[in-house]
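REQUEST ID: PR-0412
SUBMITTED BY: lab tech R.K.
PRIORITY: routine
TASK: structure prediction, single protein chain
INPUT:
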Amino acid sequence: MDSSSDYRTAIEACLEELKCYALKEFPVDYAEIQTNLGTAYGTLAETEEKAKNCQLAIEAFGEALRVFTPDAFPWEHAMVRNNLGNVYSTLAEVEDPVENCRRAIAAYTDALKLRTREQSPEDYAMTKNNLGIAYRTLAGSEEKAKNGQLAIEACQEALEIRTPEQFPLENAHKQSELGKAYWTIAFETDKTGNCLRAVVAFRAALEVFTPEEYPVEYATTQGNLGNTYRTLGTVEEKTGNCQRAIAAYREALKIFTPEQFPLQYADTQSHLGDEYWILSGVEGKDENCRLAIGAYKEALNVITAEDDPLQYDLLQNYIKSLQTGTVPVEKS
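STATUS: complete
OUTPUT:
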């Protein structure tokens, strides 16, 4: 299944099946259908009505867990708990991020009691990676250093199992997550070292994420690489790291076009404008200010005052400042 309509069809089919398979009479069938229903709702939540579909997925998985207890059905229990963690991670994107990240972490931790490294190494690695993502997301809201370090440890352990030779694509995804975790923790401790570690991880991911085979992953990773160079430029080699950030953002924009990826295009153009502005403080003032204005204007072709008034006003003010010179040229 690869479209929202497919998942809606699957949901309808599951709901129809549940009319025939009641919990008391057919507990295992009931739990399996509820698991499929939760998976369909969770996947649909990634593209539409995120909060509503996540809640429906949580309810379905909760029903499945009434049957799939850890003692009677350990494999199924771990699978559902892992999937429940994924749904809480998705829900954290739109509501109560701290609490939902904590719920995701609890679900993954519970799954890992049964998905052991010795018995189920591949499932263990997948859940460990999911746990790392949840910790990294939580680090954005609280205890950045502690949760960032926990994210790094989880991602590193997952990478020990899924080697690049055996599983190049999965390894690349995990390297990307590791890079994001290092970048997150860099704001709290060892900015230079953690940014450099992030760069290594993103570069490793890009060995697999080529623009020809995995264009979206390539562009996303280039954007993350640009963010990391931007952060690194605040502590060393400002000119060189600005230029590296600009190069990475421009690579991302080869994929993130305004027609196909308007939001990513606007976000990347905004970051590109920031880097040109910063660079104008150390070299090519007039040219880089012009390029910064151009990037901000490109972002404003997508961002509207109605949809995102704060960002719209911010970019308008940036352009005005660059045109009038009413603020110091250097932007940090």
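NOTES: Residues 209 and 304 are 32 Å apart (CA to CA).
REVIEWED BY: pending
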